[in-house]
Design a protein that fits this description.
With 447 residues, this protein is an alpha/beta fold. It is built from 14 helices and 19 strands. Helix 13 packs antiparallel against helix 14.
Length: 447
């Protein structure tokens, strides 16, 4: 069982026991040692979002990699998909993204990619953890074999060009008024620049990071400011990214938010009509709405579900030759273009549909009517209460009440000390009641 890695790398409160300079140093040394094989000079690339703690973690990771003989290429603020792309482009042995994604600034994290720009497997993460528990002195190289650190000044420009190339040749966004919310995060420069270069009129919010305001009342997890701005300026579309820009939420011209399920449905059905869709459908997680599954079935397409985490979505896509997948939360993986979730690229595919069809976003992104779905979180502090008999009894009763008319999904978060309780079904009152009853039991046990 892994001690440090969760569903999306290592994550914790910055400068605490789980995410401090010593931890980052050990990760750099262990991951560097794990990826140094062969006679060539070994390379690692490092990107980050805009959290204040990113400076500390970046320097500690760099020291760790250098001490085991890896050359380090530093990007500064760059979206997670940009780091994955440049890992491949620069022929690096591995890539690192310093980010806690949609979490508040107090948290930070370390995401690791292999040389193909893919998140590491469970087995690789476990191997790195094993190295982290050894005597670190055993991993040090001789003075003449120490690595070098280099800052790559044009990393953002390279990512912008990569994102723009995902659009059909010659397609421009002229005539579109777009509001983009960059969550004061990693995409605060690249997303507005890419949209502007494609010819759109761009109104940017969430582009003034100060180290503390990442994801603060903005971005894909807090879209109200975007909704208000879209209505205020009468924009054609709003695009909300999260702190590391690997997820996206769309707001239509009426100020209505659209989640990842609708975005995936639009892209999958459009690509299927053009003969571009692989796998006969798309891959998503157990959290996606049952309405999406029924919609795809009506279109002759299938939906494959995995456990929560875009890494597991990508693994299933690779194993079964799908090229569209993602999560309801807005992690959209388009494997023709990227090896991980890419909020900007997914948004560009929606914009391409707008330009090619002439239809408004409200029509394009209303692919299906979702079943009533309720998700509530219960925070705990000392050990998950899920295994307690009284909790298991409450869950069993909830499943019985929903029977064949809905679904119940209860799981611990892989990134925060939360229990997520989700239910969906045709009877909205019943769904709400089932979730509330289980949450009440969990809160009593977690107190």
């Amino acid at each position: 069982m892994k001690k440090y890695f969760g569903t999306d790398g290592i994550r914790g409160q910055a400068n605490s026991r789980t995410m401090n300079a010593e931890m980052a140093l050990k990760v750099g040394m262990a991951a560097g040692s794990f990826h140094t094989a062969g006679g060539h000079r070994h390379r690692v690339v490092i990107g980050k979002d805009t959290r204040l703690s990113g400076y500390m973690i970046e320097q500690a990771l760099t020291a760790g990699f250098l001490s085991v003989g890896m050359d380090v290429f530093l990007f500064g603020p760059l979206p997670t998909p940009g780091v994955a792309m440049l890992t491949r482009s620069l022929r690096a042995d591995m890539g690192v993204m310093i980010s806690a994604s949609h979490n508040p600034h107090q948290d930070n994290g370390i995401k690791l990619f292999d040389k193909q720009g893919r998140k590491l497997s469970d087995a690789d993460e476990l191997a790195i953890e094993t190295l982290m528990q050894r005597d670190m002195n055993d991993l040090l190289v001789s003075p003449e074999n120490l690595g070098r650190a280099t800052r790559i000044e044009d990393a953002q420009a390279r990512y912008i060009e990569s994102a723009k190339r995902t659009l059909p040749r010659g397609l421009r966004l002229e005539g579109l008024r777009i509001v983009v919310d960059c969550a004061n995060g990693a995409a605060y420069k690249v997303a507005p620049a890419a949209l502007w270069e494609l010819g759109a009129e761009v109104i940017s919010i969430g582009v003034e990071p100060n180290g503390f305001n990442i994801n603060e009342d903005c971005g894909s997890t807090s879209p109200q400011k975007l909704i208000n701005k879209v209505r205020e300026v009468r924009a054609d579309i709003g695009i909300a990214l999260d702190g590391d820009a690997d997820r996206v939420l769309i707001v239509d011209e009426n100020g209505v938010a659209v989640d990842g399920d609708q975005i995936m449905a639009l892209i999958a059905t459009s690509w299927a009509a053009k003969g571009q869709l692989k796998g006969g459908g798309l891959v998503t997680t157990i959290m996606s709405n049952l309405g999406l599954e029924r919609h795809l079935s009506d279109k002759g397409l299938n939906l494959a579900r995995t456990r929560v985490g875009d890494r597991y979505v990508v693994e299933h896509m690779r194993a079964n030759d799908f090229n569209v997948g993602g999560e309801q939360s807005g992690h959209i993986v388009l494997s023709d273009f990227s090896t991980t979730g890419d909020g900007l690229t997914a948004a560009l595919q929606v914009l391409a549909e707008v330009m090619e069809t002439g239809k408004p976003v409200s029509q394009l992104c209303n692919q299906f009517t979702p079943l009533p779905q309720v998700l509530k979180n219960v925070r705990y502090s000392h050990g998950t209460p899920l295994d307690m008999p009284v909790v298991q009894d409450a869950i069993a009763e909830g499943e019985s009440r929903l029977a064949k008319t809905g679904r119940l999904v209860i799981r611990p978060s892989g990134t925060e000390p939360l229990i997520r309780v989700m239910a969906e079904g045709e009877d909205e009152k019943l769904v709400n009641a089932v979730v509330s009853d289980i949450v009440d039991v969990l809160k009593k046990q977690a107190a």
